[in-house]
């Protein structure tokens, strides 16, 4: 199996410039507190009103998803451990357990979002990497559910909501993400885990699909 990490620098953070972008207001991750809001057409800027879209899941379905996340394993599947050992990897750390929302699978967004408030261990990043993410992006190697390797970019976005000034920060994995979705048959509301590990100090990540309830 050809390693996707060939040709990537292991002595640097692979800093690339990134234009700071704002996430769309309809990029909410928590379905039970949907923030998908739109301006009502035809109204002036002074009288514009917002309307809330209906929840796509019932309360019972949301509870099933929450239960699946709460009961997700806290260790990597053995096949992932074996693959990481083959690569000489170490420092395996659980980053996040989440379910996939529509924007995670959207060709218009083309990224996996990982809200900071859901991150299990912020220590998966080195201090220098945190500094890089304040102004740029980091190249990472992703170990997919198929156990194939691919290259992605890790970035940090701060999404400032216009209606109340609140700020929702998240890490995102992007560039080639839609290929990951296709190859691994990722589905809406599927539960996944993202893990981090190191190979010769370079940041790698692993994406694990968690057996989920049928909604």
UniProtKB/TrEMBL annotation:
Subcellular location: Nucleus
Keyword Transmembrane helix: no
Coiled-coil segments on the chain, per record: none
Native source species: Crotalaria pallida
A Pfam family matched in the record: At2g31720-like
Residues that span the membrane, as ranges: none
Main location: nucleus
Single GO MF descriptor: DNA binding
Gene Ontology CC terms, in alphabetical order: nucleus
Keyword line: DNA-binding, Nucleus, Transcription, Transcription regulation
InterPro entries: At2g31720-like, DNA-bd_pseudobarrel_sf
Keyword Transmembrane helix: no
Name of the molecule in the record: B3 domain-containing protein
């Amino acid at each position: 199996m050809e390693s996707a990490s060939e040709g990537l620098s292991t002595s640097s953070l692979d800093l690339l410039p990134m234009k700071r972008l704002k996430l769309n207001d309809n990029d909410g991750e928590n379905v039970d507190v949907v923030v998908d809001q739109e301006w009502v057409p035809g109204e002036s800027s002074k009288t514009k009103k917002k309307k809330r879209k209906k929840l796509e899941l019932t309360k019972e379905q949301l509870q099933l998803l929450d239960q699946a996340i709460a009961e997700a394993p806290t260790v990597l599947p053995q096949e992932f451990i074996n693959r990481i050992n083959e690569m000489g990897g170490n420092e395996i750390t659980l980053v996040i357990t989440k379910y996939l929302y529509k924007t995670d699978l959207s060709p218009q967004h083309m990224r996996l979002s990982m809200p900071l408030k859901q991150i299990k261990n912020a220590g998966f990043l080195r201090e220098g990497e945190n500094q890089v993410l304040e102004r740029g992006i980091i190249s990472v190697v992703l170990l997919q559910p198929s156990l194939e390797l691919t290259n992605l970019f890790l970035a940090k976005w701060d999404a400032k909501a216009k209606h109340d000034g609140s700020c929702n920060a998240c890490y995102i994995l992007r560039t080639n993400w839609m290929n990951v979705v296709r190859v691994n048959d990722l589905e809406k509301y599927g539960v996944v885990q993202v893990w981090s590990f190191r190979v010769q100090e370079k940041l790698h990540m692993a994406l694990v699909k968690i057996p989920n309830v049928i909604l």
